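@channel sequence for tomorrow's demo:
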Amino acid sequence: MLCTEGEGMTKFGASDWMKKKGTVVIAYTRISDNQQSKDDKKTSDAKKKPALREQRKLIDDALKAGGLPAVKDSNWFSEVQSGTNRDRAEWGNVMARARELTHQGKRVFIAVKDPSRWARNTRHSMVAIDRLHEMGIPVYAVREGIQTGSVGDLHPTEELLFVQLQGGASFVSQEQKKKADASVSQSKEAGVMASKGQSLFPFARIDPLEAYIQQLPLLTLKAKEGGGKTAFKETVAAMSQPNGITASGVTRMMEREERLLKVLSRAEYEEWRRYRTMVRDMLIEFGHDPFANNTDAGKIDFRAVALMRMVGRYLQEPDKYIQRTDDEIQDIVKNFKQFLGTKALKRYAAIVGKR
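structure tokens (generated this afternoon):
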């Protein structure tokens, strides 16, 4: 990408001198406390937190791809602090280390994942950048490929873009959250179950629906021939045990199947059946059936609870609701707390609080 700088033309990205042997790179990684995942909170050592290790890897990979020097572990500074705090200890240590290396005659630049990792307060950021600028030390955002420049190597357009991006990061985050919340709201309106829906019997010996389909020929036989509705229901129930459907449950299944075959085309029915199997396989993987009234906290997987709550309407009435897409399913499983009902959220909080 090219950009006009005064009367000449300059290329965005790392300067040639940054690629020279002997140049020292200082890496700075940061997350706010509220950005920490459950795994991040397991350790107090910032450099062992998964989110910060991911930032370091992104920096390392980008530097390598751009032909830039690698970061030594001694020049990696990492912390859990709000980007609006100008008294961040490691942020200050980054600038102190950069100044120290410059006094030793080294060529230095600072690498961050993106401008928002550097700071979220424009004024604080500009003061720090100005100090580094005078020492000939640019800050390089590897994801965007832009730098703040330095004395003798001006990059005014990039520097302006860098500051605009980090200054607007907080606003963008807020807007993204609003959009995410709106998306969740729309998803709920588009077919969320008030409860956990209908069991798919993930721990039955055989899927009751598969047993149902296999035994349909029994309905064509008379009772004296070992067929009929009673024999059919009892056979399907017995095939699915243990942890399967009851004979009365098979009656309800028969009513549902008859309705679906009336309102769906054969192709639509087969697609519904495929989707149902996919969801059931996920419940098996999670090791939890939300329909069962589990009381042992160790057996509850709230991903399964959220999943069934969000796909239940389609599974019950595929003629009225649409499937969740693969991306939506992944979002539900990853951010399951957003998709839990009030009771499930309270239960989740109670269980997590005991651990």
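heads up for whoever presents: The domain at 2-167 is CATH 3.40.50.1390 (Rossmann fold).
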